[in-house]
Amino acid sequence: MYNKIVRTAKKIYFEKKLVANQANIKKIWQILYSAVNIKRTKSSNVKDLFINNQLVSDPTQIANFLNNYFTSVANKIVTEIEPTDRPPDSLLPHNANVFSLSNNPVTFSEIKEACDQLQSKTSLDFEGISLFFIKKVICAIATPILHVFRQSLCTGVVPSQFKIAKVVPVFKSGDKTIPDNYRPISLLSSFSKILEKVV
Questions:
Q1: What is the pLDDT of residue 193?
Q2: pLDDT of residue 97
């Protein structure tokens, strides 16, 4: 009887936590790991890796190999997608009103609101800038950000700097020397996250 009550109490506790954090994916995973009692080992330092059947310890060789490995995965997936000859417009209803980003210029209040909605993460992008820092200085850098965002939305071109990510290999499970046992985590440009939220 006691064990049944404890199990029910745990179930109710975790259900409430999941509902309360449904907008925070990172927190949801933490709750799930806690619920099933899995201890996570955080490590992005790859000390040894099998490359072409040889155990390699040189950090530069490992970084270059993982970079090529992670970037080639997407190409393999793309080749497996069935091609289509249907133009994208054919998927829209005949009388659909297409929203135009160029006819609706972004305002600073929209940028500020989008920035406020993002988590104040201290993780740094490839330029060494965090969302936590941007949130602190957003009013001081409003004019250039507004200009860049408006130009991007009017021309339909995302700045190339916004497309660069810092990729960190994170160990999943198994043998730490096997490349398949790592997954890439992309630390995207903090400004690109704000632009994405505005859109």
A1: 92
A2: 67
Distance CA 62, CA 82 (A): 33
> pTM surpassing 0.70?
no
Residue 3 region by backbone torsions, left for phi larger than 0, else alpha for psi between -120 and 50, else beta: alpha
| pLDDT tens profile 25-65 | 778 778 877 877 766 555 557 788 888 888 888 888 888 88
Give the residue among 4, 5, 14 at the shortest CA–CA distance from 34.
14
Residue 159's nearest CA partner among 122, 183, 189, 123 is 189
Candidates 193, 192, 164, 169; CA nearest to 179 is 169
Q: Which residues of 24-47 are buried (b: 16+ CB within 10 A; e: fewer)?
A: eeeeeeebeeeeeeeeeeeeeebe
Task: List, as one string, the DSSP characters of 91-154.
Answer: GS-TT-----STTS---HHHHHHHHHHS-------TTS--HHHHHHHTTTTHHHHHHHHHHHHH
Domain ranges of the chain: 59-76+102-199
Length of the chain in terms of residues written:
199
**179 neighbors 65 (Cβ within 8 angstroms):** yes
